[in-house]
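Feature request, filed as a ticket because there's no other form

It would be nice if the structure record came with a short human-readable summary line next to the tokens. Right now we just get the raw output. Example of a typical job, pasted below so the devs can see what we mean:
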Amino acid sequence: GRPAHLSPPAVVHLWPQLFRARGLVAASRSARERTWAAFAMVGRRVYRGYLLFHGRALVCTMAQTFEFHAQPAGQVAIQVEGRPPGSLQPDGTLLDAEGQPIGRRPSSYPDKDQATYPVTVQERVVGRPENPFYGGRLRSLRQMSRPPAVEITAPDVTAEEQDWLLALAFWNVLFPAAIQVDTSGIV
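Raw output as currently delivered:
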């Protein structure tokens, strides 16, 4: 077998309770125009050397529906309008529906002083989603401006690339919310 010090940590259910959360995410382009996304999630937090979310989440906008199925090992299967663009792997690799690598994002979120991070699809940087941990917990007290949820950087983004960027932007909201949900009152 493999030496114990090289084996990945076992999945530990520190919070065995199933939790449910839902909410609205507002993205404002101007004072008169507001775009909303509703989300719902059900799952558990697991510990694998770091906190992960294991469960399902659904995000609905006026135009599209995004489904996320997070596994305890860190993989996240993503569907847009019921069709799978693919999955996000723990190392940051983006896989298409057939399991072939098509892109990448960093394997972990950047430091709190970096507002966005690059996403590569088909060997080109197509956009920069917001780092959900930018500015730390005191961002609002520091009056730091919030970057856009995702900035498209390529001039000719395809529908598939746009789906990936939006899915990653939504995951940037869901993942921190899932690991911060207070489950102390759940029985």
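Something like this underneath would help us a lot:
The mean pLDDT is 76.
The longest helix spans residues 159-180.
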